[in-house]
Design brief:
The structure is a single chain. By secondary structure, the chain is α+β, with helices and mostly antiparallel strands. It has two domains: about 180 residues, Creatinase/prolidase N-terminal domain (Creatine Amidinohydrolase, Chain A, domain 1, 3-Layer(aba) Sandwich), CATH 3.40.350; about 260 residues, Creatine Amidinohydrolase (Alpha-Beta Complex), CATH 3.90.230. The chain is built from 15 helices and 17 strands. A five-stranded mixed beta sheet has the order 6-5-4-1-7. It has a three-stranded antiparallel beta sheet with strand order 9-10-12. Strands 13-16-17 form a three-stranded antiparallel beta sheet. Helix 12 packs antiparallel against helix 13.
Length: about 475
């Protein structure tokens, strides 16, 4: 791990005379007062103890990652690594969590960048990390005080792992810090087991996690309302994206993923994020979007809206079929069912509907495992786990996730869809260019499920009434969250 070196001055900067350095680094009031502690920080400590118990004797290394360059010397907005955040609650970049067991106890250390203060010239000369450019870092002592975890300077990490820990086995969360991956010896197979264990810890959400998801979903609902209000003047998909994203940035940390604002035939492209088409008066608008809360838990909701306020006959046929498939999937969301059972239930409805529409000659043949012809029109399964990542728990083992069973506390999406390409000759012409997806976020309960996003209208008549009643009205006031 190389020591951070401040970047050279930008091409458009002037020089920094020695007397300016002296002038800038004196006569600053020292910070005072207590460091506010993170609410609920014991939850993070409990998670660290739990993962340590799974790997006794090992050194567990969890980086949060660095800012990434977008263009030349401008960076993307930083978002902490999910596993690091889940175990610490820390938002800052350039930090690494190390967990190890010592006897019957576990020890956690966050290696983080010091705050050099304003007696060090980098506070105004370093465009990337200087306090006057990007704001102050917490530093080592404040990190320990705020998060209730031992903290050390990041420059001490390599010595700690490679010398102090000596020959103890090391497991590393990969993909976030190339320098650490090159300098810390770890076995890929062991690392994969560690990543799987972290993902599987997140399969079951506790009450506070579900509360955070509720908040993200409520903000997302307001964002969808904003879009509906803007529809009469939303000339392009990018207007829709901007309207929703404004709510996400004001009421949360950001969008949980790139907003899909797909109108007309763009809705047949599953992850359409160019959002550059002009919206037609009789189009459907497929909006797939989610607010990521300050806590980083994200919603993931899709609605398909008639821009005019009324579905055409063909649009209503397809929309109703997808809505009915979602009802069937909901009924399969219960503890003890296979994770894939909601998908199977939805696909049975879609396949038989496609047969009625004259698109599939035989639903039963299309549903056979060696055929799956219905996938031409519905490429994706209906569910994935949801939480800190929009596709949460992605490193969990197949036997605990895809081929596992639903259990209380799991939060997942239910999102059937049908997509008829403009050039698909197997589809009657009246349906070509129609894309419909309806997506809700559900939590499995002891006796079934709760639809956390039920407040966002989805029944066909309710959707039409929603669009007609809100179009052109004044948006709701902002709900400003407390800083993270």
């Amino acid at each position: 791990m190389k020591t951070y070196e401040p970047p050279q001055a930008a091409a458009h900067d002037s020089g920094t005379p020695a007397e300016l350095l002296t002038f800038m680094t004196q006569s600053w009031e020292l910070p005072s007062g207590p460091i506010p502690t993170l609410a609920g920080r014991e939850r993070f400590a409990a998670r660290r103890r739990a993962i340590a118990k799974q790997f006794p004797g090992d050194v567990l290394v969890v980086p949060t990652g660095h800012e990434k360059v977008r263009a030349n010397d401008t960076n993307y907005r930083f978002r902490p690594g999910t596993d690091f955040y889940y175990l610490t609650g820390i938002h800052e970049p350039d930090a690494v969590l190390v967990i190890l067991t010592e006897g019957d106890e576990s020890r956690s250390i966050v290696f983080t960048e010091p705050n050099p203060g304003k007696t060090n010239a980098t506070f105004f000369t370093d465009r990337v990390k200087g306090e006057l450019w990007v704001g102050p870092r917490l530093g080592v002592a404040a990190t320990a005080a705020r998060f209730g975890v031992e903290a050390q300077p990041i420059d001490d990490l390599a010595t700690f792992i490679n010398v102090t820990m000596g020959a103890r086995p090391t497991r590393l969360v990969r993909g976030l810090d190339d320098d650490i991956a090159r300098s810390v010896y770890s076995n890929l197979e062991d690392d994969n087991a560690f990543a799987a264990a972290l993902s599987e810890m997140r399969l079951i959400k506790d009450d506070l996690e579900v509360a955070e998801l509720r908040a993200a979903i409520a903000a997302t609902k307001r964002g969808f309302d904003d879009v509906v209000r803007a529809l009469p003047t939303a000339l392009t998909e990018r207007v829709v994206e901007g309207v929703f994203n404004l709510r996400a940035r004001v009421e949360g940390n950001d969008v949980g993923y790139s907003t899909i604002a797909a109108s007309g035939p763009d809705a047949c492209i599953l992850h359409w994020v160019r959002n550059d088409r002009r919206i037609g008066a009789d189009d459907l608008l497929l909006l797939d979007a989610g607010v990521e809360a300050v806590s980083l838990y994200t919603a993931d909701i899709t609605r398909t809206l008639p821009v005019s306020g009324s579905f055409t006959g063909a649009q209503l046929e397809i929309y109703t079929l997808v809505w009915e498939a979602q009802r069937a999937a909901f009924e399969a969301c219960k503890p003890g069912n296979d994770f894939l059972e909601p998908n199977a239930a939805a696909m049975r409805v879609l396949a038989h509907g496609l047969e009625r529409l004259g698109i599939l000659p035989s639903a039963e043949e299309a549903l056979r495992d060696d055929k799956l012809f219905y996938k031409r029109y519905s490429l994706h399964n209906v569910s994935h786990m949801l939480g800190l990542d929009v596709h949460d728990c992605a490193k969990a083992r197949a036997e605990t996730y895809k081929f596992g069973r639903l259990a209380p506390g799991m939060v997942l999406t239910v999102e059937p869809g049908l997509y008829f390409q403009l050039d698909d000759l197997t589809v009657p012409e009246r349906y070509r260019g129609i894309g419909v997806r309806i997506e809700d976020d559900v939590v499995i309960t002891p006796d079934g499920y709760e639809n956390l996003s039920a407040a966002v209208p989805s029944e066909p008549d309710a959707v039409e009434a929603w669009v007609r009643s809100l179009a052109g009205t004044v948006p709701e006031p902002w709900v400003i969250p407390e800083p993270g």
